[in-house]
Design goal:
heterodimer; A: alpha/beta; seven-stranded parallel beta sheet; five-stranded parallel beta sheet; 8 helices; B: alpha/beta; Rossmann fold; two-stranded antiparallel sheet; globular; binds flavin-adenine dinucleotide
Chain lengths: 312, 250
């Protein structure tokens, strides 16, 4: 049987996490189909068809799908899921909003945030903020799964030769939800979940203005800027910057934690980074227990020095 | 309008959990338990809506072993009017929880159901959306701000990339994110008063729900450890290490 991957996109661009989800799907054995549901999103379907391993792209275009509400998409996905052994989506806010809804409609217990595929019905997933890894086996006929992007290397964005098949446009029931607006953070820097280098600030930054010290370094390294919950709660930076158990899960090549103590909930979001640097004035800070390179220092003194050193 | 709030008893967020030696799960014996932090935010939001005159009654629901009654007493002390405990020692997976909530909602007819966006033990993040789907109700997950008025509500959600505003027809389901509010602490007089509030106990089969698990946990292991590296003495040394030892920058 074939496997269905739900594409994450904004009607213009395929989100990179879709390619990681395809990598997980490719380990299951079966033809890979991708569902692109949206409005005016033909270009996304064409891009998905080029992703390595994709056999078919189902394109569901309707005005009612423009904002990809979970109510409308949930019914759409549940309607076509019966032809598939597995339905997967990225474990992003989008995927987590949608797939449980699909699971309930199919009477299936979904599996969230998988980080490894052991067999077509058996997966590994972190629990308790990543302090334990559970191996779980689904007994349901259709497996409904969200995939943690950091667990799987993305498939190539090109080289595939999938065909795009338009699904007959159905009347869309918005299920009592209507979109009012969105306020998206605009940034020239890479997205947190796709960045090769991340520099994050915590409560130790003291203010939002002081984040310019991190931004200056981010720009030299082509890095994304992240934050701890404390920095977000204090209003230093937007919510979307939060790294951790209940924010974004990241695993860049290099993660630099500045003025962050290293609470379990923060570590849960970044401890799979390849190299971790911690800058903290408290040598007892737990972040040093997982850092490859620790610098015990006042961040206000060393961040300008770091910017200067990188210019050398 | 009635508001139904679901609360879960979990290992306290400050506890560093340990995997059991036989790999069957994590150690929960003699470990500090508490209300899931996102559920505290859910209770607080319901109480604020009641204080603002938008709700008439708040019903707190918890599911699990006898000790969940304690979590429900906390919800009552924080301002819930009465509580329902679905008591079972069996494992409850999110689909079963959503079905049990459906049974309760069918009897109670709430106008709004508020839950946490995830429980910090299983980290599944599913119940709210599954329950909404079973009811055919709209959902506002990861709520950052909530306004209830008349037949509908407006919710601002924390999404990847920023914030999104939706208008939902009532009845609806909301799941809370961290910034929705700052939960209050229960005062001593309110803790005393909570002891006298109604707490009904029901069993899953009374509610007509098959709670058999659909997913088997084969084993639970500790994650690959990560050990402390070295301390560097200066920024120059740090940059040198990153360039020449770790080779992560150029
Ligand atoms: C349900 C729940 C979910 C949570 N989810 C998350 C999550 O997803 N992500 C997350 O990050 N947290 C999360 N938390 C919060 C977490 O428990 C911690 O409270 C938070 O991570 C602390 O942030 P911090 O390290 O910035 O602040 P603090 O713990 O206050 O640490 C600040 C650090 O800055 C250092 N410092 C101060 N000034 C300087 C200076 N001048 N120079 C150098 N160092 C300095 C201090 O030594 C200290 O170590 C969650 C908590 C709960 C209850």
């Amino acid at each position: 049987m074939a496997i269905l991957v739900i594409a994450e996109h904004n009607n213009a661009r395929l989100a990179p996490a879709t390619l990681n989800t395809l990598a997980a799907a490719a380990k299951l054995g079966g033809d890979l189909h991708v569902l692109v549901a949206g409005s005016g999103c033909r270009a996304v379907a064409d891009a998905a068809a080029q992703a390595s391993g994709v056999a078919k792209v189902l394109l569901a275009e309707a005005a009612g799908f423009e904002h990809q509400g979970a109510e409308a998409l949930g019914s759409l996905v549940a309607g076509i899921a019966k032809d598939y052994s597995h339905v997967l989506a990225p474990a992003s806010v989008f995927g987590k909003n949608l797939l449980p809804r699909v699971g309930a409609l199919l009477d299936v217990q979904p599996i969230s945030d998988i980080i490894a595929v052991e067999a077509a019905d058996t997966f590994k997933r972190p629990i308790y903020a990543g302090n334990a890894i559970a191996t779980v086996q689904s007994k349901d006929a259709i497996k409904v799964i969200t995939v943690r992007a950091t667990g799987f290397d993305a498939v190539a964005a090109t080289g595939g030769a999938g065909v795009v098949e338009a699904l007959p446009v159905v009347s869309v029931d918005l299920g009592g939800s209507s979109f009012v607006g969105a306020e998206l953070v605009k940034s020239e820097r890479p997205e947190l979940t796709a960045a090769r280098v991340i520099i994050s600030g915590g409560r130790g930054m003291q203010s939002g203005d002081n984040f310019h010290l991190l931004e200056a370094i981010a720009d030299k390294l082509g890095a994304a800027v992240g934050a701890s919950r404390a920095a977000v709660d204090a209003g230093f930076v937007p919510n979307d910057y939060q790294v951790g158990q209940t924010g974004k899960i990241v695993a860049p090549e290099l993660y630099i934690a500045v003025g962050i103590s290293g609470a379990i909930q923060h570590l849960a979001g970044m401890k799979d980074s390849k190299v971790i640097v911690a800058i903290n004035k408290d040598e007892e800070a737990p972040i040093f227990q997982i850092a490859d390179y620790g610098l015990v220092a006042d961040l206000f003194k060393v961040l300008p020095e770091l910017a200067a050193e990188l210019d050398k | 309008m009635k508001i139904l709030v679901a609360v879960k008893r979990v290992v306290d967020y400050n506890v560093k959990v340990r995997v059991k030696a036989d790999n069957s799960g994590v150690e929960t014996a003699n470990v500090k338990m508490a209300m899931n932090p996102f559920c505290e935010i859910a209770v607080e939001e319901a109480v604020r809506l009641k204080e603002a005159g938008k709700a008439r009654e708040i019903i707190a629901v918890s599911m699990g072993p006898a000790s969940c009654a304690e979590t429900l007493r906390t919800a009552l002390a924080l301002g819930a009017d009465r509580a329902i405990h679905v008591e079972t020692d069996a494992e409850l997976q999110p689909l079963a929880v959503a079905k049990l909530l459906r049974s309760i909602a069918a009897a109670e007819q709430p106008g709004l159901v508020i839950l946490g966006k995830q429980a910090i033990d299983g980290d599944n993040g599913q119940v709210g959306q599954m329950f909404a789907a079973l009811m055919g109700w709209p959902q506002g997950t990861n709520a950052y701000k909530l306004e209830v008025g008349g037949e509908e509500l407006t919710v601002i959600r924390e999404i990847d990339g920023g914030l999104e505003t939706l208008r939902l027809r009532l009845p609806a389901v909301i799941t809370t994110d961290l910034r929705l509010n700052e939960p209050r602490f229960a005062s001593l007089p309110n803790i005393m008063k909570a002891k006298k509030k109604e707490l009904a106990v029901k069993k899953p089969d009374e509610l007509g729900v098959d709670i058999a698990p659909r997913v088997a946990t084969l084993k639970v292991e500790a994650p690959a450890g990560r050990s402390a590296g070295i301390k560097v003495g200066s920024v120059a040394e740090l940059v040198d290490k990153l360039k020449n030892e770790a080779k992560v920058i150029q």
